[in-house]
Amino acid sequence: MYRMHPQWRRARQIVNEGGIGELRTIHSVFSYFNADGGNIRNQAETGGGGLMDIGCYSISLSRFIFDSEPQRVMGVVQYDPRFKTDKLVSAILDFGNGTASFTCSTQSALFQRVNILGTTGRVEIEIPFNAPPDKPSRLWHQKGNDTEEILLAPCNQYTIQAEEFSRAVIHDTPVPTPLTDAVSNMKVIEAVFESGRRDAWVSVD
Q1: Counting beta carbons within 10 angstroms of the beta carbon of residue 21, is it exposed (0 to 12), middle (13 to 18) or buried (19 or more)?
Q2: Using H for helix, E for strand and C for coil, what is the string for 7-19?
Q3: How far are the Cα atoms of 105, 169, 177, 184 from residue 180, in angstroms, in the given order?
Q4: CA–CA gap between residue 191 and residue 134 (Å, rounded)
Q5: Among 102, 127, 105, which residue's Cα sits nearest to residue 185?
Q6: Which percentage of the chain shows pLDDT scores above 70?
Q7: Residue range 2-194, CATH number
Q8: What gap in Å lies between CA 63 and CA 57, rounded to an integer?
Q9: CB 116 within 8 A of CB 15
Q10: SS3 for 127?
Q11: Environment class of 137 (CB within 10 Å of its CB; exposed 0-12, middle 13-18, buried 19+)
Q12: Which helix (H) or strand (E) is 167 found in, with range?
């Protein structure tokens, strides 16, 4: 759903049009604190843990902005001894021509932010993943020594997602985000977990 939000379409447009020069690296953080054993996010048997819940967004956005797949990953994974779920994950994705790094956590202060850095500029998104539907969204475009604040009108990214999917069904056109994209994202997630187990770089197959 986050890809449907105008702030991400604007960010990608800036990058694709050379607004930050050559894309070099992406840094993202997504965290919250939840130590409730009854919450599905803390239940290992149902796929709980930070990487599957919120780290997936950092991986997805990196693939979205680079418009390619990472070649290899390095991950550090910390598990909660009670829940057996990952509570803190940090990873580096190697895209060959650039990198992306992220941290996600289910037991850290509530925070989210994305920075996209190039050779001559930068894009920063204030609330990249669950932008409030009733408030303007804000990002900053730094180009050289100048920084422009960009405000986007309030919108509901879930509504946009549903409308675009509906149009694809009605007009028999490709859906905005196909299943193949989800499979590719899952391959990276699995590689990060494997890297954490092996304490080594892992190729993304």
Answers
A1: middle
A2: HHHHHHHHHHCCE
A3: 26, 17, 8, 6
A4: 37
A5: 102
A6: 100
A7: 3.30.360.10
A8: 10
A9: yes
A10: coil
A11: buried
A12: helix 157-171
Axis crossing angle, helix 56-66 with helix 6-16, rounded to the nearest 10: 40
pLDDT digits (tens, 9 = 90+) for 18-29: 999 999 999 999
Spatial contact of 41 and 83, defined as CB atoms under 8 Å apart = no
pLDDT tens digits for 81-125?
999 999 999 999 999 999 999 999 999 999 999 999 999 999 999
Q: What is the CA radius of gyration of the chain?
A: 17
Residues 74, 188: Cα–Cα separation, whole Å:
10
Rounded mean pLDDT of the chain? 97
Structural element, H or E, at residue 74: strand 72-79
Q: Which of 108, 12, 19 is nearest to 55 (CA)?
A: 108
pTM of the complete model: 0.95
How far, in Å, CA of 205 to CA of 139, rounded? 34
87: tokens are 């509570």
Nearest to 142 by CA among 61, 30, 5, 21: 21
Residue with tokens 């604007």: 10
